[in-house]
Structures are given as structure tokens and as C-alpha cells.
Amino acid sequence: MISSLSLAHKRPGFNAKNLEKRLPPPQGRGKPRTKGEGSRRMIENNVEKKQRAVLVAVDTGEYDAQVSLDELEELAVTAGAETAAKVLQKRGGFDPATVIGSGRLSEIAEFCKGDGADLVVFDCELSPAQMRNIEDACGVPVIDRTTLILDIFAQRAVTAEGKLQVELAQLRYRLPRLTGLGGALSRLGGGIGTRGPGESQLETDRRHIRRRIAALQDQLAELEKRRGLLRARRKKEGVTTVAIVGYTNVGKSTLLNALTNAGVLVEDKLFATLDPTSRALSLPDGREVLLIDTVGLVRRLPHQLVEAFKSTLEEAANADLLWCVCDASSDETDEQVAVTRRLMEELGVGDKPMLVLLNKCDLISEAPLLFGERTVLLSAKTGFGFDDLLQKTAAALAPTHRRLRLLIPYDRSGLVNEIMAGGKVFSQEYTPEGTRLDALVDVRILHKVAEFVLHGE
Ligand SMILES: Nc1nc2c(ncn2[C@@H]2O[C@H](COP(=O)(O)OP(=O)(O)OP(=O)(O)O)[C@@H](O)[C@H]2O)c(=O)[nH]1
Ligand SMILES: [Mg+2]
């Protein structure tokens, strides 16, 4: 234990501050441990004790590994763990057997065996063999970023569809990783990476899992069909939709709640929202739009998750306008917008009209450089910028209706019914000349009512 710590101090990349700050309590430290004991203890103590995780990233220069590692830490904390140490290793590429170099691996192994940590989380995806090799060396469960995110999703899914989607993604991800994992099944008792609906299924054989996957796909297809019908009906009824998309924890749900009293759970945590909630919102031009909250994004969102949440994200893909919310008080504002744009492109809707909402501006003193015509400076918390947001939203949406004052003669009163059916009437008065209306008229019937428009009122 001591030697691993002092080594850690000397080695660049090992976050010594974290190691010092979050040292495990002295009892039991240095006690020899057999393989598997860690997981048993984890189950016993699961309720009152947080898992202590070593977080590992390899910097191959492909992306900003430090930022990604910091985000991994946030994800681990969200999943209920605490950081025991952070390790960043610069390498030309991943080691095919163990991802990181053998020297660094034995350092981490020593740290784990000395009771410094009971979980190792890798920022990159691990192959089944890599997972097994690292697990054998460290004697504690080893998971990767995808498993971690899936675990958070499993904890947070609320609706039937959300739960099915998470279970499907978990099973698909675990299936190839079950082969030959021998001892690994014993670790499926609890803790990060093992929660969620998949637990009982995982103790049975792969065939059973495959059957379960097929059943889940059927159920989801059924739900997706229903969702599709709903979307088609909305479209037919001419409902305009605005989807709130963006990075996790930027304030999407807070905004929906502030604008519509939706009562969606808001938390200072990643992935508070997994299921789309929609609420009606009135625009200044009198139009009503449907506002849809969506699942938050993270950088390098695992492909399985995009796949799993495709139907949910399709709500965004099918919207008439996107509100891309980002956190103006973060150093990562640009990256948050970029991640969202990339995902929209992946969904094939990169060219959809989009407003960029710079939220949490109550936390900043200067307006960010990003500011422009299609940008709104906003605070979901204080309400600052709401007027601007609604104005720009109305302007960004293709006009479907026009507000008009009309005088419809009684022999054409069929038109009044038509206006009511396709638009909205604000006031109606019966005069000797006919029905006077103040109404939002569907642009598709403008030609029919043009001669009855009252000008100059
Ligand atoms: N200061 C400040 N805090 C805000 C503002 N908007 C949201 N927050 C806080 O940011 C945190 C995250 O808010 P949520 O609305 O849950 O964020 P979200 O984007 O829906 O997050 P996910 O559902 O996890 O993707 C909460 O603690 C909010 O109180 C804002 O305008 N100003
Ligand atoms: Mg939310």
C-alpha cells in the first residue's frame, strides 16, 4: 500500500491529490484479499458504503483525454461512487491485452489490493479479453465508460419504454462480454455496472439473453409504432413541435418547467431526464407549440446508447425546431453545442432549424462570444431572456398561421367553422354585417378568407 502510494506520487499522471484526499479508512487496509472477496464485501456494504473507484484514461492524442477523464469522474459520482484515484497515461496506442502499460497496471493492482479501491473504471471501451486481464490483475470489478453510463441510465429510467431501452442496451453490451468470463459472473451481485433489470437474466445462459433481447426488441417496436402514430397524428393536426436538446445538466428540464410548469425532475446530476416529457407552450404570435424535453448528452456518447435511445431522440429529429441548450457558465460551452450538433447529424437532421440557448447566464458576468441572431442569452432560473427566446422561436418557425381580424358575412358562415377548426379564435362578435373575428388563421386557407380581412383596425 505504502509503496504503491509513494510510487503514485512520483509518477506523472497519477493524481496524487486525489489519492491523499480520498484515502480509504485505515481499518482493513493492507489486509490480504483473495479474488472475489472484494465483490462479496461490496454487496455487504453496498448500502452504507460508496464504492471507491480508480478512474483510468489513456491519452493517445485522439481527443482531450483529461477533459474526458474529468467527465468520467462526474459520471462515476453520479452513479454513486467516489474517486479513489485518477490515472492518465500517455501512450502511442492502447495495449491490446491490458489497454495501459503493464507497469501502470501493476501499480493500480497494488493500490486495489491494498484496499485503496474496490472498482476500476476505464474511460475507453474494453474488449472482453482486456476486461478479464485487468480484472485478474486487480482482483476487483473492472468496468468501462459505457457500462458506467448504462448503469446510471438503469438507475434513472422511469417509464416502461425507458426501462426497456436501457435493458436492451445493457444486454447487448454484456452479451459478448459474458463469454468465458468465468469468475466475473460472481460479481454481478450489486454495485456499479450491475444494477438494472438485467441482473437476474445475466445469471442464466446466453441463449436466454438472446431470447430476452428479441422479446425486448418486439416490445420496443410496438411502443415505437405507437409513438410513430402519435407523431403522425400531431403532424396531421398541424401541431408544431420544439425539442429541447443538449448536454446533460445544462438546465433543459428547468427551462421546460419554468416555461410550462411541467413538474419535471430537476437535479444537479447527470442524466436526470431519460424520458421525453412534452408540454404546450404559447408563443407571442398566439401560436401554440409542443415543447419536448429529451435525454441529456455527453461527449463520446456510446453508440449503443444512441441506438437504444433512438426512438426517444427521434422526437427531437422530428421536431420543427431544436432548442440546443448549453451552459454559458461552463468552460465547455462550445463543445456542448458541438456534441449536440454531431448527434443531430448522426440522426440525419443536422440541417434542422436550431436556436442555441446560452443558459445559466445568471452565473456569468460577460456575454459569451457565441452571441448571435440564432442565439438566446437565458436564465431558466431567473426567467431572464424568456421574451427574447419566445420571439426568436416564433420567428424561426415557418409561419403556419396568421393573426387576422375578419368580418365574415352570414351567408359564408361555413368559413367561420373552418377557421375555428384549423386555428384559434380570440374573440367573436355577431354584428348586423356578419361575424367579426380576431383569429389565428391557418395559412392554407388564407386565400379563402382574404376578401374578408379588415384592414387598418
Ligand atoms: N444558476 C442556474 N442554475 C440553473 C439554471 N438552469 C438550471 N440550473 C441548475 O442546473 C442543474 C441541472 O438542471 P436540469 O434542468 O436538471 O438539467 P437537464 O439539462 O435537464 O439535465 P439532464 O436531464 O440530466 O440532461 C440544476 O441544479 C438546476 O437548478 C440557470 O439558469 N441558472
Ligand atoms: Mg433533464
How would you sum up this structure, described in words?
- Monomer. Associates with the 50S ribosomal subunit.
- Belongs to the TRAFAC class OBG-HflX-like GTPase superfamily. HflX GTPase family.
- One of its GO terms (molecular function) is GTPase activity.
- It is found in: Cytoplasm.
- It is a single chain.
- Helices cover 41% and strands 19% of the residues.
- It has 17 helices and 13 strands.
- The longest helix is centred in the middle third of the chain and has 31 residues.
- The chain has 3 domains: 233 residues, Rossmann fold (3-Layer(aba) Sandwich), CATH 3.40.50.11060; 158 residues, Rossmann fold; 52 residues, Alpha-Beta Plaits (2-Layer Sandwich).
- A hairpin with a 5-residue loop joins strand 6 and strand 7.
- With 457 residues, it is α/β, with parallel strands linked by helices.
- The radius of gyration is 27 Å and the shape is elongated.
- Bound molecules: guanosine-5'-triphosphate and magnesium ion.
Roughly what is the average pLDDT, rounded to an integer? 78
Q: Using DSSP, what is the number of strands?
A: 13
Number of domains: 3
For the record, the CATH class of the largest domain is Alpha Beta
The CATH architecture of the largest domain would be 3-Layer(aba) Sandwich
What would you call the structural class?
alpha/beta
Provide the helix percentage. 40-55%
| CATH superfamily placement of the largest domain | GTPase HflX, N-terminal domain
**Continuous helix count:** 17
**Strand proportion:** 15-25%
Would you give the CATH topology of the largest domain?
Rossmann fold
Could you tell me the radius of gyration in angstroms? 27 Å
Neighbour order of strands in the largest sheet: 6-7-5-8-9-10
Poorly predicted runs are: 1-47, 179-189
Cofactor: Mg(2+)
Binding site for GTP: 246-253, 271-275, 293-296, 359-362, 379-381
Family: Belongs to the TRAFAC class OBG-HflX-like GTPase superfamily. HflX GTPase family.
Main location: cytoplasm
